[in-house]
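Hi there,

I know you've been waiting on this one. I reran it after we fixed the sequence typo, so this is the corrected version. Both the input and the resulting structure follow.
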Amino acid sequence: MRKKILFPIMGRGAKLPARLAAASVCVLTCFSGFAQIAEPPPSSAILQDIRGFREMGSVLLVAAHPDDENSQLIAYLARGRNYRMAYLSLTRGDGGQNVLGPEFGDELGVIRTEELLAARRVDGGRQFFSRALDFGFSKDYLETLKIWDRQQVVADIVRVIREFRPDVLINRFSTQPGNTHGHHTASAVLDLEAFKLAGDPNAFPDQLKEGLTPWQPKRILWNAGGFQQGGANGGKIIRINTGGNDPVTGESFTDIAGRSRSMHKTQGFGNFGGGGGGPRYESFALLDGAPATNDIMEGVDDTWNRVTGGAEIGTQIDAVIAQFNPQDPASSVPVLLQIKKILAAIAGSDPVVDEKRGQLDRIIQECLGLTVETTIPQSEVVPGEPLKMQFAATVRSGVVPVRWVAARFPSIKEKYSIGADLSAYQSVSRDTQETLPADTPVSQPYWLRDEPDRGMFRVADPQLIGRPENPPAFPVEQVFEVGGQTVIVPDQPVQNTADRAKGETRNLSVIPPVSLKLGAEVSLFAPGAARPVEVEVTANRPGTSGTLRLDAPAGWTVTPASQPFHLGNSGEQVKLTFTVTAPAQPATAGITAEARVGGRRYDNERVVINYPHIPLLLLQPTARLKAACLNLATRGHNVGYLPGAGDSVADCLDDMGYKVTTLTGADLTPEQLGQFDAVVIGVRAFNVRTDLVSHLPALFGYVEAGGTVVAQYNRPANSPNFKVAPYDLHLSSDRVTDAAATMTFLAPENPVLNTPNKITEADFDGWIQERGIYFPDEWDSHFTPIFACNDAGESPLKGSLLVAQYGKGYYVYTGLDFFRELPGGVPGAYRLFANLVSLGK
């Protein structure tokens, strides 16, 4: 298994702005013993990196979400034309669906961040983000701009432009509203605004105080067609052929793009394929800036001539390419060192030139076959603990003298002197120990450290904005002297795993001395009632002592005020129980668990996310309980739950007092079903399960005999070709995105609205993200629509909740967002869902 903290991971040939370069990392595949370090890249890849060093052109693609990017275009520009190519996704996709598992919200956003990084490792691009939250589907870009902080998002785009310095900006979507997501149109509108401001020295002066400088791209284009068909705003269309093959692997850019897109597995793209190596044309329309006729980079000087003093670099790198010996890459090093001297003499502050300096160091390292590794015995370290490190380096060429000078630790401004001459195919190792500073923050994605605003993540350190992930917790710089010049190899400590042959490592993660876990995500209280709240404390180190408390808002009381704990062994757990009393009136609250150990406060839960297509993720969010004080009545006792693509509704039913049994398709027999008062079907179950069709007659028979089935939403895009209900209904893409949309009661006497809880308009207060999705738009007359609701300017939709009596029982189909509202602790959602499960009781 792998554990990794979150830090920028780049594709082959990717480069970093100067201020990010120190945080970059070479994670090297390792084998048993320090003498067996990773093989250097093949000669074909080294030559391609040299070609990438020669090219000075840059392109930035901008859109709204993970999966919006044009992977074909990225692969072609990054791998085919060797440009600095990047994708800026304004959001991390945290408001979307997950076809793989139960993660939603913040956790889904982290997964999709990793999916985008995995995609960029395939297609060769780089990845940026803004602070904008994906708050779910938006029908109108003006609605999007009311929720996002327009000024902040534009500032983030400008920041990325000033750091990355693209010659050309490309919008994936049109600035004209059309039949597409409001986030899509908003991304184009805001990118166009940023294009006009990025070169303005009076715009966003705080960025200039940080050391950024204005930068004006030459033009901004719309990548016409694709996701969004339509006109090109009356301008001339530029068409370019993005077909061809990767010079390193021989694979077609189309197939590379297919593999890249298949990384978006939480969105169901796991089997996304390519299309061979034939011509593939992309169209572009000018939005602003210098016109172009034949090519998107027309009029852009993409050579070293654009840099004062850079002409000689261009000439010499051309010579390196022409004379490159695949059998002896090290023979290029003397000329590369000459180029390094010229590059060092170039004056002024240019982020691209600074980046090229780091890129040249990496090329020299590759040509020498110089591989470096910093290993630690365990990847998880508590602040203040010693950090035992072993350094190892190997060089595979003896053409140029290589001396290992030192290892530097920028975060503590210290260094470890080494002073070793490296001989070909002989490894050198050193052991040292440093102390991880006591004030090192616990590892957690930087955009999740603070509670977000309505539509934006909050980021305390502005220099983190735009990064895909955190920098390393303890960066290392390995310093070498090569032919009399200094070459820096960025590094970080890693723990080798048992499966070293696959290159699996765990990057250093900073953990608290104890991890906390509350017994449930949500806890329901009757007004004025008291109930126990259990907290599990797990020692991450032996001999850990401290005190635990629950922090609750005014009106909620907790006893005792605190409790001591002592855990003798690492991994040992203790469960401490507090009594929490709710206020006399309905209310909601967040209750946080806090431990004090050694005079420091820790409130971290431990969440591990493990999918095979991305690195294993360790998240350490605040251990918080959502407490809901409400009047809730239920009927029945036993509920069967048939999981779909993943949700936590079953846990919420358990907290409501039901005994919940997880079912498979094989369990849908009259004998098994007879024990349940109701059966609830998870979200998208009919989309993702193959074991339902043959058992539906038994499920319908259960309803006919007096049972109740509550089926949650399914997507129409891959809807089944069989009946999902005993009566006909047709799924659609209808949805209501306004979480506060007025709910009109169409059947006020229906038991769904009256038994055992009287449902009122107040029960729809505080709903999150949206009312519901994928409502049926046609149904058999046996179904009774319960509500009508709509977004502003649209006709009312009546398919959000349909109830039919079938025989002696009830069949319910609903697109209301119970899978979000129940884990979100929304009281009215619990009361309404209780009525659905209680039908016929």
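Quick highlight: The two ends are 48 Å apart (CA to CA).

Best,
R. S.
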